[in-house]
Amino acid sequence: MRYEVLCLVLLGLLVAQGTGEDCPHKKAATLLPSFTMTPTATESTASSTTSHRPTTTSHRNVTVLPTSNSTATSSGPTTSTHNPAVTTSHGNATVYPTTNNGTAPSPGFSTIGPQPGPTPPSPSPSPGSKEALGNYTWTNGSQPCVQLQAQIQIRILYPTQGGGKAWGITTLNPNKTKVQGGCDHAYPHLSLSFPYGRLTFGFKQDMEQGTVYLNYMAVEYNVSFPQAAQWTFSAQNSSLRELQAPLGQSFCCRNTSIVLSPAVHLDLLFLRLQAAQLPNTGHLGPCFSCTSDQSLLLPLIIGLVLLGLLTLVLIAFCITRRRQSTYQPL
Ligand SMILES: *[C@@H]1O[C@H](CO)[C@@H](O)[C@H](O)[C@H]1NC(C)=O
Ligand SMILES: *[C@@H]1O[C@H](CO)[C@@H](O)[C@H](O)[C@H]1NC(C)=O
Ligand SMILES: *[C@@H]1O[C@H](CO)[C@@H](O)[C@H](O)[C@H]1NC(C)=O
Ligand SMILES: *[C@@H]1O[C@H](CO)[C@@H](O)[C@H](O)[C@H]1NC(C)=O
Ligand SMILES: *[C@@H]1O[C@H](CO)[C@@H](O)[C@H](O)[C@H]1NC(C)=O
Ligand SMILES: *[C@@H]1O[C@H](CO)[C@@H](O)[C@H](O)[C@H]1NC(C)=O
Ligand SMILES: *[C@@H]1O[C@H](CO)[C@@H](O)[C@H](O)[C@H]1NC(C)=O
Ligand SMILES: *[C@@H]1O[C@H](CO)[C@@H](O)[C@H](O)[C@H]1NC(C)=O
Ligand SMILES: *[C@@H]1O[C@H](CO)[C@@H](O)[C@H](O)[C@H]1NC(C)=O
Ligand SMILES: CC(=O)N[C@H]1CO[C@H](CO)[C@@H](O)[C@@H]1O
């Protein structure tokens, strides 16, 4: 982690200074944690606003035509500016690929690469902007029972026509997302419908522990990723225990992922969620921060403690040396 490195560097500096120079007097080490977020969101947006879909046309025969002849250089960071992003549209859902080639990257991190060059013009917000941050609330009457604020990304590992696999990513456009839900006391749920897809979050209250957590999650999505050999995706998992927070508090996380199945992941960025005992004010309860943030804090604390110990040792060393030096001239 960054903080471990930071702490180590600081320790190293202190040691170097302490041994090389005379004893440091009144050294003030200031640690300023700086959270720099670099959202590499590959925004995907629906290109049309019409949500009317003829119910009779159940055409599943969709040919995916990349706009450029995709003899894609396997790794082309040098020629990236001349490479237009391949966009395919099916059912009005435009999807920008993360990888042109059918080689399956390891699930997780490196797949969310930045788009080469500017993304094609689209009527909706630019990638990574705050506009993709959704605020989804379900209320029963006047009492809100589930509120979820997040930028939601769906990541799907899909089979390609070449026989490989690739990760596709879409980001939900909050403006085109409809919220439904239920306020059953022990099992509140939230359902988000968007063009050709639906997400369902089922929560569960654990009265004994006084917590609430995400217990059930379902994704259904019809989307055509580049060179995909499959267009309908669905996954559900009813044995989750994620996003857990004490009753009355909201679960906050800058970046967390839910693994529904090996092939379907959900990324929740800038997440703030509360699914039980919401205050009536429209605001959420105090933040209960996710473990990934805490795991960042831990190295920092350890580093600070070590720093303190080291400072003590140095001071002791200084004192003893000064005493020696006062007696030595004799
Ligand atoms: C979210 O975290 C994953 C790794 O945990 C990282 O690859 C990704 O870039 C992060 N996304 C943002 C927007 O910070
Ligand atoms: C799918 O499209 C191809 C070419 O457009 C056509 O040859 C084939 O018959 C179509 N299949 C179906 C099931 O419509
Ligand atoms: C794509 O490129 C390959 C090799 O360069 C060529 O054989 C093929 O005809 C091209 N396809 C199109 C549609 O241009
Ligand atoms: C993907 O890249 C590999 C090697 O980088 C190559 O062998 C393969 O043909 C490529 N596949 C496609 C569909 O371009
Ligand atoms: C989405 O909503 C935001 C905030 O209400 C608005 O500024 C933006 O224009 C909307 N975008 C579209 C495409 O409707
Ligand atoms: C939700 O509202 C309906 C009627 O508006 C009511 O019958 C139901 O008891 C309410 N549920 C909860 C959990 O408050
Ligand atoms: C996805 O497509 C399947 C089959 O065509 C259809 O049954 C399902 O309702 C679609 N789902 C959504 C969310 O549009
Ligand atoms: C559901 O999620 C749990 C916890 O992440 C995981 O162990 C389990 O394999 C998942 N079930 C399926 C069917 O993927
Ligand atoms: C989210 O929506 C709720 C209910 O519509 C509203 O009270 C709250 O102020 C909104 N929060 C933000 C950050 O927009
Ligand atoms: C860009 C695109 O595909 N637009 C289509 C969106 O869906 C409506 C209704 O199905 C079509 O009329 C548009 O052509």
TrEMBL record:
Keywords linked to the UniProt accession = Cell membrane, Disulfide bond, Endosome, Glycoprotein, Lysosome, Membrane, Repeat, Signal, Transmembrane, Transmembrane helix
Start-end of Polar residues biased regions: 82-104
Database matches in InterPro entries: Lamp2-like_luminal, LAMP_CS, Lysosome-assoc_membr_glycop
Which Pfam families does UniProt cross-reference here?
A: Lamp2-like_luminal
Q: Where is the Lysosome-associated membrane glycoprotein 2-like luminal domain?
A: 133-278
Q: Name the cystine pairs.
A: C145-C183, C253-C290
Q: Which GO terms describe its cellular component?
A: late endosome membrane; lysosomal membrane; plasma membrane
Entry membrane topology: Single-pass type I membrane protein
UniProt lists compositionally biased (Pro residues) regions at 115-126
Question: What does the function comment of this entry state?
Answer: Could play a role in phagocytic activities of tissue macrophages, both in intracellular lysosomal metabolism and extracellular cell-cell and cell-pathogen interactions. Binds to tissue- and organ-specific lectins or selectins, allowing homing of macrophage subsets to particular sites. Rapid recirculation of CD68 from endosomes and lysosomes to the plasma membrane may allow macrophages to crawl over selectin-bearing substrates or other cells.
The family classification in the record reads: Belongs to the LAMP family.
- Name of this protein: Macrosialin
Q: Which gene encodes it?
A: Cd68
